[in-house]
């Protein structure tokens, strides 16, 4: 990972006096190095600390390779991590948000790079963040190819940080998943989420912390653990599960359910001339969604366009592939169920019908 960077102070003073501690930055790099080195692949060349990450792409393996890229962050979920001074899971969220976008088109994630902006470098904090990123990369099967940590005194408070990441994946052109593969009669299979994932935290924090004034350290009976633990539940990483489905079934397309909820994210992958009809009665959202809705008096429409409501990924499959897909996901310990179907329609749209049981 390259050294800490910032613009130098004027003559007659020092970088440290301006708030940038280069020594702490170098200490942070050494502290995170063991975690970063665990998230590797055979194609990685060199190690942490160079100016560029190097990845030897074996072009002989592919006929017509297509590279896919994605950049994302984790939004205001970082505020929960900072409030609890627990930083070893937020990196898992970052990886999930990036690689689960890549896999929508069938791309295998190859590597990620991270960017961490901090008010003041605290080596142990940086190492914990990168540990989470490393753990996530290992779950996704991709390499952590380096990144950047930037100290911003005067712009960000000490203890404050934000993170983002960019990932690159690869897929054969002939195997690439595209909306034009979707047909009327196809079935939608939901892959369950692990909670809020990394979207809607501005609303969740406003309702639970500002309106309801619930303490992060307080035990919540519906959860079986504290509110803070629930809000820091890592985003589920579906990359390898989705790649297993593409290898073992005729899956048409995936939709990663992030900000905008089920309807808006599914619309992004539908071709013209079809509509998706979803049955709310096919699943019960986790208690955290009901808690937010009830404590904040948040209407269902607002909940459904803000949160994933318990569905983190949707697979679109031919009807005769559904049983096989459910078996694959069950074997991989991913909660999954039939969510709805694709119908012929004049306009590309998503309709949710019925009510959630016990919600």
Automatic annotation (TrEMBL):
Subcellular location: Cytoplasm
GO CC field: cytosol
Pathway involvement of the protein, from the record: Purine metabolism; IMP biosynthesis via de novo pathway; 5-amino-1-(5-phospho-D-ribosyl)imidazole from N(2)-formyl-N(1)-(5-phospho-D-ribosyl)glycinamide: step 2/2
Protein known as: Phosphoribosylformylglycinamidine cyclo-ligase
The encoding gene: purM
Keywords: ATP-binding, Cytoplasm, Ligase, Nucleotide-binding, Purine biosynthesis
Residues in coiled coil: none
Top enzyme category: ligase
UniProt GO MF annotations: ATP binding; phosphoribosylamine-glycine ligase activity; phosphoribosylformylglycinamidine cyclo-ligase activity
EC code: 6.3.3.1
Entry similarity comment: Belongs to the AIR synthase family.
GO biological process, one term: 'de novo' IMP biosynthetic process
Lyase is among the record's keywords: no
Main subcellular location of this protein, as a coarse class: cytoplasm
């Amino acid at each position: 990972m390259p050294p800490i960077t910032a613009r130098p102070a004027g003559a007659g003073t020092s970088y440290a006096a301006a708030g940038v501690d280069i020594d702490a930055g170098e200490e942070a790099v050494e502290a995170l190095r063991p975690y970063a080195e665990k998230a590797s692949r055979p194609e990685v060349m060199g190690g942490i600390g160079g100016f560029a990450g190097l990845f030897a792409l074996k072009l002989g393996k592919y006929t017509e390779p297509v590279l896919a890229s994605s950049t994302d962050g984790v939004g205001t979920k970082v505020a929960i991590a900072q409030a609890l001074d627990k930083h070893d899971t937020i990196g898992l969220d970052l990886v999930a948000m990036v690689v689960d976008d890549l896999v929508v088109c069938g791309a295998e994630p190859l590597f990620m790079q991270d960017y961490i902006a901090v008010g003041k470098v605290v080596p142990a904090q940086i190492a914990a963040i990168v540990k989470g990123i490393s753990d996530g990369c290992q779950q996704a099967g991709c390499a952590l190819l380096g990144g950047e940590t930037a100290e911003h005194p005067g712009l960000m408070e000490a203890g404050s940080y934000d993170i983002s990441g960019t990932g690159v994946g690869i897929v054969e052109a002939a195997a690439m998943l595209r909306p034009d593969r979707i047909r009327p009669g196809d079935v939608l299979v939901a892959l369950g989420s692990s909670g809020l994932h990394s979207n809607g935290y501005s609303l969740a924090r406003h309702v639970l912390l500002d309106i309801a004034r619930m303490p992060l350290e307080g035990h919540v009976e519906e959860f079986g653990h504290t509110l803070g633990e629930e809000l820091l539940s890592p985003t589920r990483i579906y990359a390898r599960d989705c790649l297993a489905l593409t290898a073992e079934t005729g899956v048409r397309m995936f939709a990663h359910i992030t900000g905008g909820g089920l309807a808006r994210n599914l619309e992004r992958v539908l071709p013209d001339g079809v509509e998706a009809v979803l049955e709310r009665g096919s699943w019960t959202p986790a208690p955290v969604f009901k808690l937010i809705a009830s404590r904040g008096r948040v209407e269902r429409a607002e909940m459904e366009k803000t949160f994933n409501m318990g569905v983190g990924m949707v697979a679109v499959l031919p009807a005769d592939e559904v049983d096989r897909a459910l078996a694959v996901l069950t074997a991989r310990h991913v909660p999954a169920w039939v969510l709805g179907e694709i119908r012929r329609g004049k306009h590309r749209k998503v309709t949710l019908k019925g009510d959630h049981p016990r919600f």
